[in-house]
Design brief:
Strand order of the largest sheet: 6-7-8-9-10-11-12-13
Number of strands: 15
Radius of gyration: 21 Å
Helix content: 25-40%
Shape: globular
Strand content: 15-25%
Bound molecules: zinc ion
Amino acid sequence: MKCYKHLSQIVTLAGAAAKDGRRLNPEDLHIIEDAAIVFDDETIEWVGKTADLPAQYQKLPFHRLPGHVLTPELVDSHTHLVFGGDRAEEYTERLNGVPYESIAARGGGILYTVAQTRSQTEEALFNLSVDRINQISAYGVGTIEIKSGYGLSLESERMLTKLIHRLKLHFSPKVQIINTFMAAHDRPKDFIDTADYMAKVVKPLLDELGPLKIIDAVDIFHEKNYFTTEDVKALKSVASKYQVSIKLHADELNDNDGAKLAADLDALSADHLLKVSDEGIASLAASSTVATLLPGTAFFLGKPLAPARKLLNAGAKVALASDFNPGSSHVDNVLLVASISAAQLKLNQAELWAGITLNAAHALGLKSQGAIIAGLRPRFSLFRAPGLAHITYNWGKNLSVTLP
Ligand SMILES: [Zn+2]
């Protein structure tokens, strides 16, 4: 059993949890000042004011942590962090006014990353990914979702999914990794259409890997000129055989009824939503599907942001994630993304923190973390700061410290 005492604050998010992460006011953070907590490896036993610590815990050895803030664990619920090469030159070209279409036409863009990823050995990709995860962990992020999807062939996507599983074993339990199968990221040109690619690569590979129980979720790029509604339903039906939930890249480039489709299919999340319709917003609000916003992408590419306030006001459950990837959001720090975007998206402090803890955990199907309440799992982040306000106020300054 472990005990921390005299934390400047514990940010429990108990109010947010009680409201299922929706329609949050700043008070829903439920902050305890001069706080204490008792927990073992599996469960939070007790949380409250240090002065109120029950008698049975008084004799426990403890750590004194004044000047520190304990929050529910930061979760980055959307990354594509296993990739080879970089697209720094391409980013510069974009800044200099070259359209993505002409970059893609000469072999740049996602297909460049696919070629760079395929050219790496598994060991080299593993080591690159370990370095990236260590860096993300240093920001206080303890749960990271990782999607495959830069292989786009049977052999390469199989290797990537197994590699993400190796990463999961390597980092457990300190960093919890969620393995998302996203062979349906883009269609290589050697397939006639997406249905052909689904039939020859995505479905057979999921049928092969599903029984191994290493896949936590599946994801698909549902957009005009990419994967169709029929492709999404086909993916969902294969995933269901293995009790694996679906997530969707939805309504990013066009309003494609992706949000409604995600809600209808009981998806864990619908991600991006830059072009989501009012009908799509209403569908999400009436569902348990999390609306995951990825403001890093809009900042990186100079696009307008998603209609966060409309989603929140409608009662949707909103999460924020980094979308860390080499092409459209080369940022690995979800707290930085949330801190910068909160004012632009008009989020209050409870919406901001629920977006990168409670709701982000729910976007991964993790219902037993995301708040600091007795009975939940003891997954926390710790910051050297006098109060929560200082963490997001200090954009990009890393105040995270290792838990004692
Ligand atoms: Zn993505």
